[in-house]
Design a protein that fits this description.
This protein is mostly beta strands. It has a domain at 33-98: Nucleic acid-binding proteins (OB fold (Dihydrolipoamide Acetyltransferase, E2P)), CATH 2.40.50. It is built from two helices and seven strands. A hairpin with a 2-residue loop joins strand 6 and strand 7 (90-98). The radius of gyration is 23 Å and the shape is elongated. The termini are far apart. InterPro entries: NA-bd_OB-fold (IPR012340). This is Cold-shock protein. Residues 1-21 are annotated as: Disordered. It comes from Sphingobacterium hotanense.
Length: 99
Amino acid sequence: MFAYVDEYGNISDTPPSQPYKFKEEDLQRPADPTEEYHFGKVSFYNEVGHYGFIRDNETRETVYFNDNLAGMVLNLNQAVKYKYARSKQGNQITEVEKI
């Protein structure tokens, strides 16, 4: 016995009458919001531990950074342009630039 799935996800025992034609948008990956740059400023920085948080200007979410991840020392209230990735511990920067 064969099972067929139509373009709407329905399972049937009869083959489809016309093969599905792929559209170009079916092959494109949806845009990942973490791949674009975000703008914010350093809202907290611990000089002893060399870590801090960047607060996004639009969403008001915070993103963790440390001097090793940033590749530079950021100061409190420093305006930055950054990218981030989600991890087990939360959002962490992957790239950062001073503005």
